Automatic annotation (TrEMBL):
<comment type="similarity">
    <text>Belongs to the class-II pyridoxal-phosphate-dependent aminotransferase family. Histidinol-phosphate aminotransferase subfamily.</text>
</comment>
<dbReference type="InterPro" id="IPR015421">
    <property type="entry name" value="PyrdxlP-dep_Trfase_major"/>
</dbReference>
<dbReference type="InterPro" id="IPR004839">
    <property type="entry name" value="Aminotransferase_I/II_large"/>
</dbReference>
<keyword id="KW-0808">Transferase</keyword>
<keyword id="KW-0368">Histidine biosynthesis</keyword>
<keyword id="KW-0663">Pyridoxal phosphate</keyword>
<keyword id="KW-0028">Amino-acid biosynthesis</keyword>
<dbReference type="InterPro" id="IPR005861">
    <property type="entry name" value="HisP_aminotrans"/>
</dbReference>
<dbReference type="InterPro" id="IPR015424">
    <property type="entry name" value="PyrdxlP-dep_Trfase"/>
</dbReference>
<comment type="pathway">
    <text>Amino-acid biosynthesis; L-histidine biosynthesis; L-histidine from 5-phospho-alpha-D-ribose 1-diphosphate: step 7/9.</text>
</comment>
<dbReference type="Pfam" id="PF00155">
    <property type="entry name" value="Aminotran_1_2"/>
</dbReference>
<dbReference type="InterPro" id="IPR001917">
    <property type="entry name" value="Aminotrans_II_pyridoxalP_BS"/>
</dbReference>
<comment type="subunit">
    <text>Homodimer.</text>
</comment>
<feature type="domain" description="Aminotransferase class I/classII large">
    <location>
        <begin position="25"/>
        <end position="351"/>
    </location>
</feature>
<dbReference type="InterPro" id="IPR015422">
    <property type="entry name" value="PyrdxlP-dep_Trfase_small"/>
</dbReference>
<dbReference type="GO" id="GO:0000105">
    <property type="term" value="P:L-histidine biosynthetic process"/>
</dbReference>
<dbReference type="GO" id="GO:0030170">
    <property type="term" value="F:pyridoxal phosphate binding"/>
</dbReference>
Amino acid sequence: MSRFWSAVVHGLTPYVPGEQPKLADLVKLNTNEHPYGPSPRALEAIRAATDDSLRLYPDPNADALKAALAQRYGVQANQVFVGNGSDEVLAHAFMALLHHERPLWFPDITYSFYPVYCQLYGIAHRAVPLADDFALRAEDYLPRGAERAGAIVFANPNAPTGRLLALADVERIVAANPDAVVLVDEAYIDFGGQSAVPLVQRYPNLLVVHTFSKSRALAGLRVGYAIGQAPLIEGLERVKNSFNSYPLDRLALAGALASVQDEAHFQESCRKVIATRTALVERLGALGFEVLPSAANFIFARHPEHDAAQLAAALRERAIIVRHFKQPRIAQFLRITIGTNAQCERLVGALGEILAG
Ligand code: PMP
């Protein structure tokens, strides 16, 4: 602790990112990265952008990338915001759009960055409990007389549970809260969910956030984006331009653009992850694991007879890393990223050994 810290730093409990160990031959199933590489066209575009032009600042408005995203989603370019990973997009959204007199509502079990942003920006919030089966219930987010949200944020599919809220339920929440911004964090939507993006034309209070880190296998490039009606996007631009006018560097802009233009690679690589997920759920079920239904590139699983922390530690001894959370309600679960088929085979083999004692 330093006496030079400002008051806000003293009070902060920062987000702890998933571990990025430096060991070779590790089966790394702890931070939901894509097991296969990004589009070869994205890699080629990054290489091509690696030249003398790096002495110049990048396009602060990311016009080419926004135009490509707008085209893909059938919206206007002024309905797209881009940032340095969806974490940054979320951070700007919390400041620009989710800070109101009434508290911000989000599920009690969800992406743990949300309470961190609330603390950083002094946003009052209310954690709305998930159902016993970890489902998010749309009815819990509907206004009840004077009790209504100042804004709402949730991940869909949710993290770390992987559970999906049906699009009709997302719409119910958005429609019932016309005076509150509803931010749907769709970091994992491409692995089997139906995106809420088509709803943005009808709902001025809806903002949908996506990332290139998961389904586009570009976590190392740090690109995220938001889609909503122009006034919401303008609010985000105001915060961004008060913070860092150039969040995306030239290589990120080039790589992300080429990735959006390679729809076939995107579809195929998501399909492969989904197929591996189906097979892994079956294999873990055969070992006695209970697995929550997942629409993400990870699964949330527990074994009724084995302690999750001990399982995670035993896997680690075998150079397999999965994520374990200490929060009491989910402390019996492991969150396991869908890896390659070979990685999942190694995981299942190791778990079989561990359970056999
Ligand atoms: N939202 C959710 C729900 C996530 O799990 C993550 C990844 N940790 C993010 C957003 C942030 O992803 P990124 O900053 O890599 O885009």
